[in-house]
Amino acid sequence: MRLTLFVLCACTALLFAVRAQAAAPERVEKTEEEWRAILTPEQFEITRKKGTELAFTGAYWDHHEKGVYACVCCGAHLFSSEAKYDSGSGWPSYWAMIDGAPLAEKRDVSFGMIRTEVLCARCDAHLGHLFTDGPPPTGLRYCINSAALTFIPAE
Ligand SMILES: [Zn+2]
What we know:
This protein has a single domain, classed as Metal Binding Protein, Guanine Nucleotide Exchange Factor, Chain A (Beta Complex), CATH 2.170.150. It is globular, with a radius of gyration of 18 Å. The protein has 155 residues and is of the alpha+beta class. The strands form two sheets. It has a six-stranded antiparallel sheet. A three-stranded antiparallel sheet has the order 2-1-9, with no helix packed on it. Bound molecules: zinc ion. Zinc ion binds next to loops.
């Protein structure tokens, strides 16, 4: 009985350790100059300066291949083509992030609007905004700049 309890406790502790690790993604930190050196001017402006690309101009708003969309700055896997849908907004839109993706949300009151900014929690890249007018099953709309993403086709 005691042994069972011990094993149970050990397993629980291990589970928590693994979960804690998953919740705290390995950080990627670079100076502004280092980011500028590895990103295109547009990628830099959007991800590091919170810019927004013009609607219907990015590489992925009308992109329908199967695969994963990763952070253009640090490569973290963020969105799956499975959750991508045509929102009509002109920006890549997803109704969910990948399970456990390092996404952070922040209140954004710029331009006289109250919005939820979406950032990569691993490298602090600005990705886009999160709205609650998305389709089922979540009702969420992650409205993301193409320039903040890089596409990895499914094998
Ligand atoms: Zn990132």
